[in-house]
Design brief:
The protein is mostly helical. Helix content is about 40%, strand content about 5%. α3 crosses α6 and α4 crosses α6. This is Peroxidase. Its EC number is 1.11.1.7.
């Protein structure tokens, strides 16, 4: 056979191979962007580069009834709306339905989840390391055992319930890190904010260390404002964003042992905190009966009068009544760097609800693992 004939034959066979591979794509894939077999691009590199991901699907969906996040930051390019549209189409619905059932019997779950996502993402990124009871090749204490988290950190059992239902539907597909993020969106919706599109594609971390938490990656209740601003700035958040994020206390509770010294022995002076009014001191005493006695059970106290609604009453209580529970919250009221933001959100009932979701979106994309990094855990309490 002549050289020219051999060359034409090779071109024909290569073209035929391409058409056969394209025709072999299942018909159900025609509804969205085509996903080639993993070895397809290695056989034909000129057709483009394969996405570095093991599960999910990179597709953008139009959901008119939901708000599109107004992003003033760079979202990691591998986090996508509709990430599980093909690999686990019911994932977001399972998360929403399961959490809604939990909230019916436990309204405090909303605040629990918002605290959980903060305590996960601020330590080493949003990798669900806060959920681990033990980690691979790690005999050290895990994050949830740190004094910065303590036994009052709740929400892991809720994630367990949701993960179990997802594993029944689509085993090994949805990461625990994405579950935390999706549940956070549901918590905000149930607390009165408009639904928003959900970014998926996070993967789960394999390391969890209490020592990482305690390396000034989470605040303590008695921190100074300088310490707070340094931490939030280090994580990439402005002072205004810090104030907005602390506004999550709008649906939270504090426990008496975290603030009771402010009404009877502030900084070991034997006197109340001078920034508290007599009215607030008496209110706190009524909320924490029998403190320090055998009858004491450390009851939870709401930060504001609407503990299941994300509204601006947390800030209004500060400005109008000078009511704060935690010392770090009192700094917001007293510090000139933060007070102007507190004033604005107290005066405008729409400002905090409109700004809070964007700050939480930024939080939920902090130092995420994507592609081949980390893993997708089978259960959220242990590495695979």
């Amino acid at each position: 056979m002549k050289y020219q004939d051999m060359k034409m034959s090779r071109i024909f066979l290569t073209t035929l191979s391409l058409w056969l591979l394209l025709l072999a794509i299942p018909s159900e894939a025609k509804e969205g962007p085509v996903t080639m077999p993993l070895n397809f691009h290695s056989l034909f590199p000129f057709l483009g580069r394969v996405n570095e991901q093991n599960t999910g699907q990179d597709v953008e969906e139009n959901t008119p009834q939901e708000q599109t996040p107004q992003q003033s930051f760079n979202t990691p390019h591998k986090l996508k709306v509709g990430f599980y549209a093909r690999s686990c189409p019911n994932a977001e619905k399972i998360v929403a339905d399961t959490f809604a059932q939990i909230v019916k019997t436990n309204p405090g779950a909303i605040g629990n989840i918002l605290r959980l996502v903060f305590h996960d993402c601020f330590v080493k990124g949003c990798d669900a390391s806060i959920l681990l009871d033990y980690a691979q090749n790690n005999n050290d204490a895990v994050e949830k055992s740190s004094m910065f988290n303590g036994f009052l950190l709740k929400g892991a059992d809720m994630i367990d319930d949701i993960k179990a239902k997802l594993e029944e539907e689509c085993p090994g597909i949805v990461s625990c890190a994405d579950i935390i993020s999706f549940v956070t969106n549901e918590a905000m919706s149930l607390a009165g904010l408009p639904p928003r599109k959900r970014l998926g594609g996070r993967r789960d971390g394999m390391v969890s260390l209490a020592s990482t938490v305690e390396a000034n990656n989470l605040p303590l209740p008695d921190w100074t404002m300088d310490q707070m601003i340094e931490l939030f700035t280090r994580k990439g958040f402005s002072v205004e964003e810090m104030v907005i994020m602390i506004g999550a206390h709008s649906v939270g509770v504090a426990h008496c042992d975290g603030f009771y010294e402010r009404v009877n022995n502030f900084r070991k002076t034997g006197k109340p905190d001078p920034t508290l009014t007599v009215e607030v001191i008496e209110e706190i005493k009524r909320s924490c009966p029998d403190f320090g006695t055998n009858m004491y059970r450390n009851p939870p106290v709401n930060f504001d009068p609407t503990p299941t609604v994300l509204d601006n009453l947390f800030f209004k209580e500060m400005v109008e009544r000078r009511k704060t529970l935690l010392i770090t919250d009192s700094h917001l009221l007293e510090d000139p760097r933060t007070f102007p933001f507190v004033q604005k959100m107290a005066a405008d009932p729409n400002m905090f609800p409109s700004k809070f979701p964007d700050v939480m979106l930024k939080l939920s994309t902090l130092d995420v693992l994507t592609g081949y990094d980390g893993e997708v855990r089978k259960i959220c309490r242990a590495t695979n």
